[in-house]
Design goal:
With 351 residues, this protein is α+β, with helices and mostly antiparallel strands. It has 2 domains: 190 residues, Periplasmic binding protein-like II (D-Maltodextrin-Binding Protein, domain 2); 95 residues, D-Maltodextrin-Binding Protein, domain 2 (3-Layer(aba) Sandwich). Helix 2 packs across helix 10 and helix 11 packs across helix 12. The chain is globular.
């Protein structure tokens, strides 16, 4: 607005001025959108939230629980960028904790206790499975000339290194009147090695679990199923273990991790066909094998008195036989705080 001879003249904004105003308004709008995006978490090129906590999980090719939690977004929904790393056995996965290849591993009592005995590691939850039905899933295969446990005296038997199988052999043979020292134990890294050795005549007997494997062993000529683990006093516990360093750095995320596992386990039992398809797609496990195994081995994330008793009994054996050289207080190796926060009703054991 200008004054000319006492008259105020209103001038229209120039084109340049209008462009500048439009530019400033656009910049302010974009700035606001950018702030909102930052507040909701920036994303990387793959679309994942960069604020998510990375958790590397030791897995096996026959376990569906972690894969379901990843595929259905149960981890991602809780701010977890989960990576499943497959090993030949749960024991190998537990050993990977020692070199920090993984952050969380699962396994039977034996490898879990082995980890606890080696230093700063703790159990964060159990996965159940101390049942007769789960025990019956473990099958003992032997050559046709072995018709009873007593016939195993002087024979070569398989065990998977780092697992509870030597303990199982000890208890089973004891009931059959045979000492563990009366057999030759051949250590292997995975069940497929036991299959090949039994097929080639380098072994006389092997314990096996999983429908995909038992179907293969059932088809072996000159080999038969002698018994199963439900006929022994052994009931197998399953635990989740992590380093104390990782637990202390990520208590909330471990709570979220366990809640996601519980959700995945429930989902897997309710959608067996979908899980069978997923397992075939990711590991080539036959669909019928997944459908057989799912109802037998449901994961029940929590921690019960039965879970504690299973660990305590296995630990005593490992101490007595010198497998664990330095005894330790089991209660001090249980870190259930995150579990109690996530699933309080699933923690029925108290120290």
């Amino acid at each position: 607005m200008t004054r000319s001879n006492g008259v105020y003249i209103v001038r229209k904004p120039s084109i340049v001025t209008g462009v500048l105003i439009l530019f400033l308004a656009t910049a302010l709008l974009l700035s606001g959108c950018s702030s909102n995006a930052a507040g909701s978490g920036a994303k990387d090129a793959t679309g994942k939230n960069t604020d998510n906590v990375k958790i590397r999980i030791a897995d096996t090719s026959t376990n569906p629980t972690f894969r379901v939690a990843i595929a259905k977004g149960f981890f991602e929904n809780r701010g977890i960028d989960a990576e499943s790393i497959t090993f030949g056995s749960p024991a190998e996965g537990v050993n990977a904790l020692f070199i920090k290849q993984v952050d969380i591993a699962y396994g039977a009592d034996f490898p879990v206790l082995n980890a606890l005995s080696k230093g700063e590691y703790s159990v964060i939850a159990s996965a159940g499975q101390t049942t007769d039905e789960a025990a019956a899933a473990w099958k003992l295969y032997a050559k046709e000339d072995i018709q009873s446990g007593a016939d195993l005296k002087g024979k070569k038997v398989s065990f998977i290194r780092g697992t509870f199988i030597p303990y199982l052999w000890d208890e089973y043979l004891k009931d059959q009147g045979v000492a563990l020292s009366d057999v030759t134990q051949i250590g292997q890294g995975a069940f497929d090695e036991a299959y090949i050795a039994l097929k080639q005549g380098d072994l006389d007997a092997a314990w096996v679990i999983g429908s995909a494997l038992t179907d293969k062993f059932d088809a072996l000529e000159g080999v038969h199923q002698l018994t199963d683990m439900s006929q022994t006093p052994i009931r197998l516990g399953m635990g989740l273990v992590s380093s104390n360093e990782f637990i202390q750095a990520n208590p909330e995320k471990i709570s979220d991790f366990l809640a996601a596992l519980d959700e995945a386990s429930t989902y897997a039992q309710a959608h067996p066909e979908e899980v069978a398809d997923l397992m075939y797609q990711e590991t080539k496990q036959p669909k019928d094998a997944t459908l057989k195994d799912l109802p037998i081995n449901p994961w029940e994330v929590g921690f019960t008195q039965a879970a504690y008793d299973s660990l305590a009994g296995q630990k005593q054996y490992m101490v007595d036989t010198g497998i664990i050289e330095q005894d330790f207080d089991l209660d001090s190796k249980l870190d259930l705080t995150s579990l109690q926060q996530a699933l309080p009703d699933k923690v029925t054991y108290s120290k």
